[in-house]
Amino acid sequence: MPGFVPAILRDASVGLLRADERVFSEMLDGWAAQMLARGLAVDTIKQRLRMLRRFQSFSNEYPWRWQASDVDEFFAERRLAERPLSLRTLRAESNAIEMFCSYASSPWYGWVELCERQFGDVPAQAVFEWNRPRHTADDAAPSGRRAFTRMELELLFNTMDDLVDAEHARGSKRWLSLLRDSIAFKVCYAYGLRRRELTMLEVEDFGPNPKTPQYRGFGAVQVRWAKGTAGSGPRHRTVLTAPKFEWVVDLLDFWVSKAGRGLFPTAARSSSLWPSERRARVTISTMSDSFAAARRLAGLPEGLGLHCLRHSYITHLLEADYDGLFVQTQVGHQNAHTTGLYTSVSSDYKQRMIQRMIAARLNWTKNEGDAHG
């Protein structure tokens, strides 16, 4: 089967002006076509192509002469820069080089044959096990992030509710946007949502769950802007309303009515769950800024951001003895390891678990003794 190599480059009789640069450019175009065919996001593809050109410029060589040492030196310099490369970015860029080398050295695309004929050398892999960035749990989640304790959550939500009441009593127009944000943060906690997932919610995303008719039209929510894998675009998932958070049903029922969301003049223009005074949808930065202001007003630690409500959701479900696989599915994690990184169970919970295991052990020992007696 013919590969992507254009006919003009496969024609041995055609002399190439600046052959190395032209072949490299065509390689990048071919790799871009492959990534598009795989369904990767255009922005991700552009970012990877820019990085490959940067690597080529640094090494001053082309893919048919790249070596593992070129990769080592490229990333070593960037890690020692004034603003060092994070391990997460290091992994992403290293993976991009590895994937490009796999593409260029694949026999299916014809680049090996072309480069051997044109340059007397062939593309090969330059990223291996020994120079691939480590992937540990240490840097997967910032150390400052943790779950809110229940007392901290109560303080945060009470602070916001009191602020709404105070602004409403003063006749300030701010009370409506503060009410929106207060309800949004509680919904974020009740469903374990990311910031973007929360902001992009629509009224129609909520629906009934046949197994829990008591939750009416809020038994489940379709999350349409869930985080996808690198370059894949957003994924979808369904999050069920958990009995632990059934209080959110009445809250949502009020919010989607004319007495809540309907008070915004922009609400009629779209089905966005969180309209603003001038736009159909509030922005992510507005949500984050409002949360930071409420956290400061409540006197809570600086490291507790909006995303920590998601940590709290996971932690509090696990502390309530919900099945780990259920929790993992609810938050859309592909691996249980990732869910574990979000969990910061309290010392009280750990003590209860220890006491439960001790009681179970004593009960088992007693039963064994009775059986042998």
CATH homologous superfamily descriptor of the largest domain = Intergrase catalytic core
Shape: globular
Approximately how much beta-strand content do the residues carry? Answer: under 5%
Helix content percent band: 40-55%
Q: The CATH topology of the largest domain is what?
A: hpI Integrase, Chain A
Q: Provide the number of structural domains.
A: 2
Count the beta strands.
Answer: 3
> From the helix content, strand content and strand pairing, which structural class follows?
mainly alpha
Unreliable stretches: 136-141
Listing every helix as H and every strand as E from the N terminus to the C terminus, the arrangement reads: HHHHHHHHHEEEHHHHHH
For the record, give the distance between the C-alpha atoms at the N and C termini, rounded to a whole number. 77 Å
Oligomer: single chain
CATH architecture of the largest domain: Orthogonal Bundle
Major β-sheet annotation: 3 strands, antiparallel
The average pLDDT is 86
Strand order within the widest sheet?
Answer: 1-2-3
Number of helices: 15
Please write the CATH class name of the largest domain: Mainly Alpha
Radius of gyration: 27 Å
